[in-house]
Design goal:
This protein is α+β, with helices and mostly antiparallel strands. It is built from four helices and five strands. Strands 2-1-5-4-3 form a five-stranded antiparallel β-sheet, sandwiched between helices. The longest helix has 52 residues. It is a single-pass type IV membrane protein.
Length: 176
């Protein structure tokens, strides 16, 4: 793996439901301290300490975290978090995770964390390409939404013109 992604967890609130560490270290304690203090106003958060990035993705009441070597950048850790969020939601959404106690999903989901960490670390070019495609798709979606809003605005303007035309016709017919 080259140990670029070294620790990850999934938590509900501040209770870690599943975690995986490539090896031991103080980063687990730092990651858990950060979990206690995450800003509620954001869905992505990254903290850098001692040559490592502590990246968090918050979705609903769940927090996904990965600790990575700072030199790999932020794209791969964020892609990992998105992959884990999707897999966790597909597997546990609306079910077991809502009531699971701390570390009760380690045995079930810990291997998935390891597997995804391995994949993301071993295939950075695929992750980068995918992130690029997602960014382009998001940009296209934004442009399309702009066009739709403009069309809807024009539709309202046309309706107003038609209403005004009808009012004028009524006034002309009434004055004859």
């Amino acid at each position: 793996m080259g140990q670029s992604l070294i620790y990850s967890f999934v938590a509900r609130g501040t209770a870690v439901l599943a975690e995986y560490a490539e090896f031991g270290g103080k980063f687990t304690g730092i990651a858990l301290q950060c979990l206690q203090k995450l800003p509620l106003s954001t869905d992505h958060f990254t903290y850098t300490c001692d040559g490592h990035t502590f990246s968090y993705l918050i979705d609903s009441s769940f927090t996904y975290c990965v600790v990575a070597v700072e030199s790999i950048g932020r794209q791969i850790p964020m892609a990992f978090l998105e992959r884990i969020k999707d897999e966790f939601t597909n597997r546990y959404g609306g079910g077991k995770a809502a009531t699971a106690v701390a570390h009760s999903l380690d045995r079930e989901f810990g291997p998935k964390l390891k597997e995804q960490m391995q994949y993301c670390a071993d295939h950075p070019e695929d992750i980068s390409k995918l992130a690029q495609v997602k960014a382009q798709a998001s940009e296209v979606k934004g442009v399309m939404m702009e066009y739709v809003e403009k069309v809807l605005d024009r539709g309202e303007e046309v309706k107003l013109l038609l209403d005004k035309t009808e009012n004028l016709r009524s006034q002309i017919s009434g004055s004859r």
